[in-house]
Write a structure and sequence with these properties.
elongated, DNA_Rep/Repair_Clamp_Loader, 10 helices, alpha/beta, P-loop_NTPase
């Protein structure tokens, strides 16, 4: 099961654990997954605490120091301000120095009941005792080979004949990973919207949202995809 599907199920079933390690080479994507998970848990931005490596000067190496971890622990032990939970995100957790890691470990052993801790890392280069106390969730790159092919197909549609559009819709309608591809496409268009906040890019995002919703309530996947592709081209 894919990482986001695992987390969605935990949110739905209210069976989330207290500590996670999210890891993958695309750290921007992994971080966004942590923020999305926080939203799914109903955690407000006000109740999210984040720390990351810091260096005092050019001669110091980037690391997460014990002072930052202690402050994070203090924050997540406070009563949530706008909901039922607080959430901590530790970026580049593999850069915890030994003192910081040991201090964090004590909290992972006896976590606050109203808090969730997520450690982010590009790999699993963390001390084994920390790993053993967390649920490990691996994230593949947001644009794997299959997804890149799908994205190229979508983005090139403006130059293709209507027959080609319908053929593309027919092919995609039988793809078992269609929802995953649409989610990847959604991330791509969201990135485009951030870089270029135009009505056109916003409409593309709305169209994908609508298509994903319709695919859950109809068996005619091909028709939904045809409508989506036509909206991309003709608006």
């Amino acid at each position: 099961m894919k990482a986001k599907a695992i987390l969605r199920n935990q949110i739905k079933d209210r069976k989330n654990v207290s500590s996670y390690i999210f890891y993958g080479s695309d750290q921007e994507f992994v971080y966004q997954a942590a923020r999305d998970f926080a939203t799914g848990l109903g955690v407000s931005d006000f109740d999210i605490v984040e720390i990351e490596p810091e260096a005092r000067d050019q001669n110091s190496k980037d690391e997460i120091k014990i002072k930052a971890v202690r402050e994070l622990i203090r924050q997540i032990n406070l009563t949530p301000g706008h909901g039922e939970k607080k959430l901590a995100i530790i970026k580049q957790a593999d850069k915890l120095n030994s003192e910081a890691a040991n201090t964090l470990l004590k909290t992972l052993e006896e976590p606050p009941t109203s808090s969730t801790i997520i450690l982010l890392s590009s790999d699993l280069k963390l001390i084994s005792t920390i790993i053993s106390r967390c649920q490990v969730v691996r994230f593949a790159d947001r644009t794997g080979t299959a997804d890149q092919t799908i994205i190229r197909s979508f983005l090139a549609l403006g130059e293709q004949h209507l027959k080609k559009i319908f053929a593309t819709a027919e092919k995609l309608s039988t793809d078992p990973d269609l929802d995953s591809h649409l989610e990847t496409l959604l991330v791509t268009f969201r990135d485009q919207l951030i870089k270029s906040p135009t009505p056109s890019n916003l409409e593309k995002i709305k169209a994908v949202f609508e298509a994903r919703r319709n695919l859950r309530i109809t068996n005619n996947r091909r028709l939904v995809l045809e409508n989506l592709l036509l909206k991309f081209i003709y608006g």
